[in-house]
Design a protein that fits this description.
The complex is a heterodimer. By secondary structure, chain A is mainly alpha-helical. Chain A has a single domain, classed as MetI-like fold. In chain A, helix 4 runs antiparallel to helix 7, helix 5 crosses helix 6 and helix 9 runs antiparallel to helix 10. The radius of gyration of chain A is 21 Å and the shape is globular. The termini of chain A are far apart. In chain A, 37% of the residues are buried. Chain B is α+β, with helices and mostly antiparallel strands. Chain B has a six-stranded mixed β-sheet with strand order 6-7-8-3-9-10, sandwiched between helices. Classes of the chains: A mainly alpha, B alpha+beta.
Chain lengths: 228, 365
């Protein structure tokens, strides 16, 4: 019976981790890829100083947010969702939704940033070639995006990797409630503190396996992409 | 009415004048070749004609109509009538088929498969359809680029050094394709090359571009056939020597070019300028036993790949002779910089260029 509960809990924790991080990355991709693509394509034009300045500012902001500590994000989301906060009436604090929101804020800059640099690093000659072959500006932009597809994929994987291993933010906004908002990372913290090393190590192994499987998939896709 | 007409074209990049008043016109169906050294402005000119760059000053007419560079729509519209092959081959990360189909797809055309297959046949790339274009060799990639430019049957084909850095087989395939579309489809072609032999082989007319200006314009014969004084200054012609000539008892001439005695078949005394065509010089690694009157020993100081031929600079007692051989013989003779070689040329290969007037002396042999 104990055994059954042990594995049941582990399954519950693992599935919640995947659900929270998966959802935040999925929503994040819908926001981050178009924005990142837009910013990446932008640099093809902008000759005027003002445009350039805005460009540099935007990119610096994105890069800053990419490196933002999750605990800080967690704190801000907590203050917004807490009972006396502006969105306290939604009653979202200590729910998986609050965790998804927290991770969403963490992954969007990553997806924007990596997509932006992937699109931006597509050779200028690719766009020119497309135009020369009769493409309209829009068609050429699509082609540049297509050429950057490996980088866009990388942004998704990087975002998921960051989200699944994140602990500080979701600990604050999720509350690490057993059977409800406890994820792989927050559980490891608690189980280690309690001295339940068997549980902590098992969870650690699962987390590591998930990371490995994701990276394996990424590497396979990238190798295939390189060969076409 | 000319297909393309360029009037007094100027282009400036951050203060540097790249084109300095270019004017010419190309007739419909003509194969027009821009010859000139690197940096002469050939690429810039082609990029302006492909509407990728805007001229700083001057006018371009396409089918008699003034090209408006200011609107994207007009540029996109005109570009669809033009095919361009860049010097640096750029292909998309997709299959060969999809690469060639791309220009058709963006135009929303039909019968894509049939058209792509037809053009791949022409550039001899059938069977490559499903390969990723980025895995191709340089020559194959450039043939895909040509297929991309030709698949839409453009009215004007622009080629920027399409065979630079390619091996002889790919070069001749590409040259055949170019003259095929020019002949069969009546496609107007403007091609840039620094390979003068290619110009001679393909061109209806040649414009010699140097330092952003057209120095000469005409048929190849008109420009390079007569070895006039002005050509010499372009350093397009190699093996130009000055010396004092005296007439021998056999009725030939011996010219002393600062220590070296060169025998020529003409009969002329006094100061002369000589030209020995590089293709008339025989090269060997062993002392030559030949009827050629002029044989010298020297060392190779420079090897330059010109596409299907190789040009060597051979230093003979401080004088540089340019010799043209095939890439094959270069490999067979295992020649390297500083290799000891023997050169030989007939007295009849030695030609004079008149010093005083620009009237060509004698025809091209």
């Amino acid at each position: 019976m104990f055994e059954n509960t042990f594995w049941n809990e582990i399954l519950n924790i693992t599935l919640l981790s995947l659900r929270v991080s998966g959802t935040s990355v999925m929503i994040g991709a819908f926001i981050g890829i178009p924005v990142g693509a837009f910013l990446g394509l932008k640099q093809f034009r902008g000759k005027r100083t003002v445009i350039r300045l805005v460009d540099v500012m935007l990119k610096s902001v994105v890069n800053t947010f990419m490196g933002m500590p999750p605990v800080v994000v967690g704190l801000v989301v907590y203050l917004i969702l807490t009972a006396s906060g502006p969105l306290g009436w939604l009653g979202l604090l200590y729910t998986p939704t609050a965790m998804i929101i927290t991770q969403l804020i963490e992954v969007v800059p990553i997806i924007i940033g990596v997509t932006m640099s992937a699109v931006g690093s597509v050779e200028k000659s690719i766009r020119e070639k497309a135009l020369s072959l009769g493409a309209t500006e829009t068609q050429a932009a699509w082609l540049v995006l297509r050429e950057a597809r490996m980088g866009v994929l990388t942004s998704i994987i990087a975002a998921f990797g960051a989200a699944i291993s994140e602990v500080g933010g979701i600990m604050i906004t999720g509350g690490n409630i057993r059977w409800w908002t406890r994820t792989l990372t927050t559980a490891i913290v608690v189980e280690t503190e309690l001295g339940n090393f068997a549980m902590a190590l098992t969870l650690g192994a699962i987390l590591l396996s998930i990371s490995f499987i994701i990276n394996l998939a990424l590497t396979i896709v990238q190798l295939k992409g390189a060969r076409g | 009415m000319p297909k393309v007409e360029v009037q007094n074209l100027f282009k400036e990049y951050s203060g540097r004048q790249v084109l300095k008043g270019i004017s010419f016109s190309v007739q419909s169906g003509e194969l027009f070749v821009l010859v000139g050294p690197n940096g002469a402005g050939k690429t810039t000119l082609l990029r302006i004609l492909d509407l990728l760059e805007e001229p700083t000053n001057g006018k371009v007419f396409f089918d008699g109509e003034l090209v408006d560079y200011s609107t994207k729509k007009e540029r996109a519209f005109l570009r669809r009538k033009i095919g361009m092959v860049f010097q640096q081959t750029v292909l998309f990360n997709m299959s060969v088929f999809d690469n060639v189909a791309y220009p058709l797809k963006v135009r929303g055309e039909r019968n894509i498969e049939q058209k792509v297959n037809g053009i791949l046949e022409l550039v001899q790339l059938r069977g490559f359809e499903r390969k990723n274009a980025l895995t191709l060799s340089g020559g194959e990639a450039q043939r895909v680029a040509i297929a991309q430019a030709l698949v839409t049957e453009p009215e004007l084909l622009l080629l920027d050094e399409p065979t630079a850095n390619l091996d002889p087989r790919n070069t001749s395939t590409i040259e055949e394709v170019i003259s095929h579309v020019n002949r069969e489809k009546k496609t107007t072609v403007i091609m840039a090359t620094h390979n003068i032999f290619q110009a001679e082989k393909l061109a209806d007319r040649v414009a010699f571009l140097s330092d952003g200006k057209i120095e000469m314009l005409g048929t190849f014969q008109e420009i390079f056939g007569g070895r006039s004084q002005s050509i010499k200054s372009f350093t397009m012609l190699e093996n130009i020597f000055h010396g004092l000539s005296r007439i021998t008892t056999e009725g030939t001439s011996i010219i002393d070019i600062g220590g070296l005695q060169i025998e020529a078949a003409f009969k002329r005394a006094g100061n002369v300028t000589l030209h020995i065509p590089p293709e008339d010089i025989i090269l060997s690694t062993r002392p030559l036993i030949s009827s050629a009157r002029n044989t010298f020993e020297g060392r190779i100081t420079q090897i330059s790949d010109m596409g299907h031929v190789v040009k060597l600079k051979v230093n003979v007692e401080g004088r540089d002779f340019t010799v043209q051989i095939t890439k094959r013989s270069l490999n067979e003779m295992q020649l390297n910089i500083d290799s000891k070689v023997y050169i030989a040329f007939k007295a009849s290969s030695v030609q004079t260029i008149t010093e005083t007037s620009s009237v060509p002396f004698g025809g091209k042999s």
